[in-house]
């Protein structure tokens, strides 16, 4: 328990009475952002580990379809055709329900009545976090390219040199397709055969240690 003097001292740190309210609102925004991130992490894990096979299959097919589309067609064509298809589909659906079914589709009505305005508090908090990450990135880039840390600069140079060979054999979209397949299949495969894989890795590690010793 804090003493009355400590509480009074903490309150004196604020220049204005409104600062206490602003601090409380900022803490609420941070809590909401953390809860939102946690819920997104749970959803991603559910997709990756195929807890809902139908949802995971749909997401995987959509991602692969988008990536293969960019692999075969130009980005402008994909955006134009996708927007045109969405526009025609939604309006045909609305015309059907309005003139033939004589009612309003529940999904469309929910979107029409939903508040789609972006919350200013979350945008401001996300902007602050993005600014912090950007500043950290700029500092690290300066240290790497100006040889402030020679070891890190050498490692980065070796990485770039290796990437030149990777880029000679694969393009970026091919790597994205491979990464998507690995993300959706490797965790589930490891979860299904965890004991066998751990046993094999342990045996391999022991054999490697014997050879190296």
From TrEMBL:
Keyword Magnesium in record: no
Membrane topology, record value: Multi-pass membrane protein
InterPro entries: Reticulon, RTN1-4
Source species: Paragonimus westermani
Keyword terms: Endoplasmic reticulum, Membrane, Transmembrane, Transmembrane helix
Record-level GO cellular component terms: axon; endoplasmic reticulum membrane
Domain Reticulon: 44-213
The protein's name in its UniProt record: Reticulon-like protein
PANTHER family: RETICULON-LIKE PROTEIN (PTHR45799)
Annotated TM spans: 57-88, 169-190
Main location: endoplasmic reticulum
One family name in Pfam for this protein: Reticulon
Subcellular location: Endoplasmic reticulum membrane
UniProt keyword Metal-binding present: no
């Amino acid at each position: 328990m804090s003493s009355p003097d400590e509480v009074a001292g903490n309150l004196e740190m604020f220049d204005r009475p409104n600062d206490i309210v602003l601090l409380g609102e900022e803490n609420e925004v941070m809590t909401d952002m953390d809860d939102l991130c946690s819920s997104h992490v749970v959803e991603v894990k559910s997709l990756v580990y195929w807890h809902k096979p139908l949802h995971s299959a749909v997401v995987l097919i959509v991602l692969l379809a988008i990536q293969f589309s960019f692999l075969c067609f130009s980005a402008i064509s994909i955006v134009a055709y996708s927007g045109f298809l969405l526009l025609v589909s939604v309006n045909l659906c609305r015309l059907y329900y309005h003139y033939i079914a004589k009612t309003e589709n529940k999904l469309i009505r929910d979107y029409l009545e939903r508040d789609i305005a972006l919350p200013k508090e979350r945008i401001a908090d996300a902007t602050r976090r993005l600014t912090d990450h950007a500043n950290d990135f700029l500092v690290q880039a300066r240290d790497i390219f100006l040889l402030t840390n020679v070891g890190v600069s050498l490692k980065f140079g070796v990485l770039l040199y290796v990437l030149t060979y990777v880029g000679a054999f694969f393009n970026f979209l091919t790597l994205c397709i491979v990464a998507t397949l690995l993300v959706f299949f490797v965790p589930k495969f490891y979860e299904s055969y965890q004991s066998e894989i751990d046993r094999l890795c342990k045996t391999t590690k022991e054999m490697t240690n014997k050879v190296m010793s």
